[in-house]
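Bumping my old thread because nobody answered last time. Still need a sequence for this structure:
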């Protein structure tokens, strides 16, 4: 069963990175890729953005081949062009040139029938940052459980 408002979240990105800012970009997809994404057949967990020749590209995003497609199915991890204004590309490119910053997709969704990607400018977390986040989440969960029981 297809969902018209299919949204794929990249939960791993928020665990692996500190998100400094986010922005929305369009995404160039083929017809069978759109159908597969609407069925939830996409994964953003390994994806990242690259800049080449003044253009932004989304690399390593996996979109499963559409079940009912044939020769028209595209390669699952092919680079996909991001649709951004030139000024946004230049600004992101200059920020990525800073040490330790990267652009990762946070969410893939449809707006008025168009595929959109929420991109995040991110700095990688250290091991102890991840461990502290897990400890904080566990303690919040325990507190919430205790409040429910009381």
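Sorry it took so long. Here it is:
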């Amino acid at each position: 069963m297809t969902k018209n408002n299919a949204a794929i979240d990249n939960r791993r990105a928020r665990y692996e990175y500190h998100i400094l800012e986010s922005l929305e970009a369009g995404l160039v997809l083929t017809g069978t890729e759109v159908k597969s994404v609407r069925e939830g057949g996409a994964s953003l967990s390994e994806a990242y953005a690259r800049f080449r020749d003044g253009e932004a590209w989304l690399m390593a995003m996996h979109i499963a081949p559409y079940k009912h497609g044939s020769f028209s199915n595209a390669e699952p991890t092919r680079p996909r062009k991001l649709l951004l204004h030139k000024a946004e590309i230049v600004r992101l490119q200059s920020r990525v040139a800073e040490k330790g910053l990267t652009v990762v997709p946070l969410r893939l969704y449809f707006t008025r029938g168009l595929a959109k990607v929420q991109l995040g400018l991110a700095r990688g977390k250290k091991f102890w940052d991840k461990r502290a986040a897990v400890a904080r989440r566990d303690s919040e969960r325990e507190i919430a459980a205790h409040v429910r029981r009381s």
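The chain has a mean pLDDT of 90. Let me know if any region looks off to you.
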